[in-house]
Amino acid sequence: MRRIFLITLIAGCVAVQLPGQLLQLRITGLDGLAAKAKESVDITLDSNLLGIAFQFLKSNSKDKDAKDVQAVLSGLKAITVRSFEFNEAGQYRMEDLEPIRAQLRTPGWSKIVSSQKKDEISEIYTRTEQGKVVGFAIISAEPKELAVVAIEGSINLSDLSKLGGLGVPAIAIPDQGKKGK
Amino acid sequence: MNLDDELRAALRREDPSPGFAQRVVARAKSKPASPSWFSGSWFPSSWFPRMMWATALAAMLVIGFAAVSEYREKKAERAGREAVLALRITAEKLNSARDKVLRREN
Predict the structure, then answer these.
(1) N or C: which end of chain A has fewer CB within 10 A?
(2) How far apart are CA A91 and CA A95, in angstroms?
(3) Model confidence, pTM
(4) A72 touches chain B (CB under 8 A)
């Protein structure tokens, strides 16, 4: 009886942990920046919340833009965004990004776009499993702005580029197979 | 007999028969009162506390259901807004990265 109770307890703990583990890329090391930032965005949506968001947009918006958003959302399992805008430069260090970049150097992740200047970094990564893109990450660091995006699930970047009507600029996405310079 | 005499005879004052007042009072007492919620005649008076509790419970359930519905609606609205904002930021950063690469190539 005691053993059954323990097994049930452990199974319950594992079940509770599972949603968090879906976010394979953990955005760490940026916790103190929100206090220094002029504006900050901290969004974490797991599959449950994405499902709720999908249903909300489906029932409340019938126009084409909303359908484009739904098309992008439908393939996602999790999305995490940390974005900071500062009044002045020097509020964060490039070393703060190292825990995230270290995860992105692990097998499975590929850097597809990279642009680096002395105080600016723009990097785009994709994560593949069995030949399919299952994850996507962006690091964008400028003197007064810092943003990290992590997306789990299948995402069609050309669908994302169609979201201009909701304030999302229409963008031409570089070929996913092209390696950055 | 003319009309005036007939009317006078019909409308003349007559005293009631003996015991008329007692009979009226006795009749009034014997007639059952009309049903009334407040009089407690619909339900035994012992039911009233239970009825009150049941009403309070029903009211609490309705309020609770409304509160949960409101919470779920707010949660869905917030999730929807956050999802759109997250995709907007993602698209902006993608665009920015693309522009930087293109500038370097040129």
Answers:
(1) N
(2) 12
(3) 0.66
(4) yes
pLDDT, averaged in runs of 10, over chain B (106 residues): 81 85 86 57 75 93 95 91 89 82 75
Q: Are A79 and A45 spatial neighbours (Cβ–Cβ below 8 Å)?
A: yes
Nearest chain A Cα to B73, which residue? Answer: A56
Specify the residue for token string 């703060």: A96
Is A123's Cβ below 8 Å from some Cβ in B?
yes
By three-state DSSP, how is residue B28 classified?
A: helix
Whole-number Å distance between alpha carbons of A47 and B96: 27
Q: Is residue A79 helix, strand or coil?
A: strand
pLDDT digits (tens, 9 = 90+) for A125-153: 998 888 788 888 999 999 999 999 999 99
For testing contact with chain A, the best of B93, B102, B103, B106 (most A CBs within 10 A): B93
Nearest CA to A25 among A81, A96, A74? A81
* Nearest CB to A115; choose among B84, B87, B97: B97
CB A43 to CB B93 under 8 A?
no
CA R_g for chain B:
42
Whether B91 sits inside 8 A of A169 (CB atoms) is yes
Give DSSP secondary structure letters for B66-104: HHHHHHHHHHHHHHHHHHHHHHHHHHHHHHHHHHHHHHH
CB contact under 8 A, A81 and B89: yes
Copy the structure tokens of residue B24.
């009226």
Q: What is the pLDDT of residue A129?
A: 83
End-to-end distance of chain A based on CA atoms, in angstroms? 61
Q: Which amino acid would we find at residue B20?
A: F
Contact A163, B91 (CB under 8 A): yes
Inter-chain CB proximity A120 and B100 less than 8 Å = yes
